[in-house]
Structure formats: C-alpha cells, structure tokens
Amino acid sequence: MKIAYLLGSLNRGGTETLLLDVFRNATKNNLNAIGIYRKTGALESDFLHCGIAMHKLTPENNKISYLLRLRKLLSENHIDIVHAQQPIDAMYAYLACLFTNTCIVLTLHGYDFDPSKFSDYILRFILRRTACNIYVSNKQLQYYQKKYGLKHNKQKVVYNGISFDKFSSTRSAILNQFQDKNTLRNELHLLQNSLLIGTVGNFNEVRDQLTLCRFALELNKAAVDFHFIFVGGRLESMPHLYDDCVNYCKQNGLEDKVLFLGSRTDIPQILDQLDAFVYATDHDTFGIAVVEAMAVGVPVFVNDWEVMKEITVDGKYATLYKTKDEKDLLREFMLFLQNKQVCQSKAIEAAKFVKETYSIEKHIDSLQEVYNQILING
Q1: If we measure between CA atoms, which residue out of 329, 330, 333, 324 comes closest to residue 209?
Q2: pLDDT, tens digit, for every residue of 80-98?
Q3: Of 327, 339, 286, residue with least CA distance to 309
Q4: What is the four-CA torsion angle of 58, 61, 65, 68, rounded to 10 degrees?
Q5: Which residues are CB-neighbours of 302 under 8 A, at least 6 positions away?
C-alpha cells in the first residue's frame, strides 16, 4: 500500500507541521508514502529532507496539463491512495484519477467558513466523491455530518499527532540542552522572577488573540508582575488581526508587558520556559499548540470552545474559561496563582495524557487503519 499526500504550499502552519512530523516518522512506522506540493514556502527545505520523496507539481495557468502530470506521477509511483489536505487538492486528485482504481481521501483541517461560491461548490462536490473524509475532532465531524448529510461509514475521526521527540520529557533536560538560551528571559531582558505567560499561533481568523490582550490589561490592573508573549506571524492576507492587537496594547500602555515575537522555530523551548500557556480560539478544529503546551507540563488555560473541551476531556487536563470573557480568565488565573502546586500537578498529569493520546505514532497507526479499511472495502 502506497500513499501520496497532496499539499498546497509549504508555509509554516498547523497542517504543514503535522504532515512534516508524519513524513519524518513514516519509515519507522511502516508508512510507504510520497509528498506532492503545489507551492514553495518557509518549510520547503525541511520537507525536502524529511525522509520521503517530495515532488513539486505546479498547476500554473494550465490545469489540464497539471492533471495529466499528476496522473502520470501517481501512476509511476504505483499509488493506491491519494490523501489530500484541502478540498481543492482532493478535487484535483479526483479528476486526475478518473477511471483508475486509486482512492481519494480528504482530511478537513478547518470549517467551511470561506464565503466564496467556488470554494463552496468544490467542497460540496468532493465530500461525496471521496473514499473517506477524515476529521480531526468529533465536534468537527458532527458539524459536517449534520450540515451535508454525509454517509456515516465514510466519515472518520483521526486526531492530529505530535512528534514528542522534539520535546524533552522534563523541563530540566530542555534547559540543560539550551542553557545558553535561557534563555528566553535573558533574550528579552526580563527579570527572572517575573511571571512569563505566552501563547502560540499565527494571527488568523481561527484564533482570538484580542481577548488575550484584554486579559493582559486585566492582569496589569490587578498589579500582577508579568510579561505576556505572542508567538506567531502577521499574515499578509489578514494583517488587521495582528495590527489590532499591537494597537490595543499601545493604547493601553502595555508595550513593556506584552511582547510580539513573530514566527519562531524554537517553540518547544519557548513553551518549556513559560509559567503558564493561555489560548483563545474562535473555531479551531483541534489545537496543536494547546496539546504541545500540555505536553511539556505547562499549566494551560483555554476557552470553552467545544473542541477544546473535547481534547482536554472537559477541562480535566487544562483550565477552561468562558469564551471571550477576559474577566473569567482573570478569575481562573488568579486561582492558579493561589494554588500553583495543585495546578502544576494537574499539568504533569496532562503531559502524560497527551503523550499517550496524541502521539504521531498513534496518528499514523490510525491513518493506516483507515487506509486498510478503504482498500478492503474496495
């Protein structure tokens, strides 16, 4: 059984990070795969050295030529299943594989909130023509199932996986390994005893960083000694989401308290040095950053969006606060400051839980179960 994974660009993002981890762990987990991508990106070099064959295939202005080249590439590599990560790539695969025995699988990493009629048409068309649609949470599956009336037996949930090799099992191990970088407080010229709080994620429509800015203002009003760091890029397609946060902090005198670090490649080390990780989402489908923070044993605060309740087992492994309610977040955070030892014990349990539940090995095993079932069913 051989799988071809279709990607769009190789920019830094949750989907790309997941696929990069899958590819790096493919061989040792007996996953026979190739990768095919349409556009370059910041992670292209990483993908080209990930351990599986990568092929760049660009549609340019001639879609017919692209489909013929894609069909030829799939045939030459004896591909049994094409696994697309976007509806448009699933559509390309469907057309390229017409009158062949190659099966199409689509993972839906987000929701169908794109207002464009073209995107809506592609999604509605392809959802019923794949061998299987994969969702990254039960909440997301239920949403699509209800809206589109899809056949239940062709819808599966496969939780995202994380390669925990990039995370040390203990905080001290990471600090010893990166002792010249401690580290983050030294880099940012912060006092060692000041609380360091942070969040990770690009500034896009999925996240709600503005609520976290309002939370920082509430912390400042409460005279808490803290610094809050945002790790994530400003996207050219929606720059106002980043700019609104920066301007809010300037207008409220938080420039010395709230720091915007942009995109970083040392996320595991940053997470390890935080006293707490705080996250706000509008409509995440999984929350890789939240799971990564849990994995290093950092106390995690996340809003009560249904998906976050699902991955934290209704708040058993993280502290939930009311969505878009910075005052409720402040209340929960002040309880944390009063009970740090209890919260740290909870964080240690959370680290064990996520490493057992959301490992990249378990993710690959789940994918292979889906692939095998597809081939059995023909």
Answers
A1: 324
A2: 999 999 999 999 999 999 9
A3: 286
A4: 50
A5: 278, 279, 280, 281, 287, 290, 308, 312, 318, 319, 320, 321
**Structure-token pair, residue 169:** 């099992």
Question: Does residue 106 contact residue 129 with C-beta atoms inside 8 Å?
Answer: no
CB-CB contact of 360 with 164 (8 Å): yes
The pLDDT tens digits for 214-262 are: 999 999 999 999 999 999 999 999 999 999 999 999 999 999 999 999 9
Distance of CA 111 to the CA centre of its chain: 14
Cβ neighbours of residue 370 under 8 Å, at least 6 residues apart?
105, 132, 134, 156, 158
What is the residue whose two structure tokens read 């051989």?
2
In terms of Cα–Cα distance, which of 283, 213, 282 is closest to 242?
213
Q: Which domains does the chain have, with CATH numbers?
A: 3-163+360-377 (3.40.50.2000), 165-357 (3.40.50.2000)
Asked if 274 contacts 198 with a C-beta cutoff of 8 angstroms, the reply is yes
Beta bridge partner(s), residue 226: 195
CA 357 – CA 162 distance, rounded (Å): 10
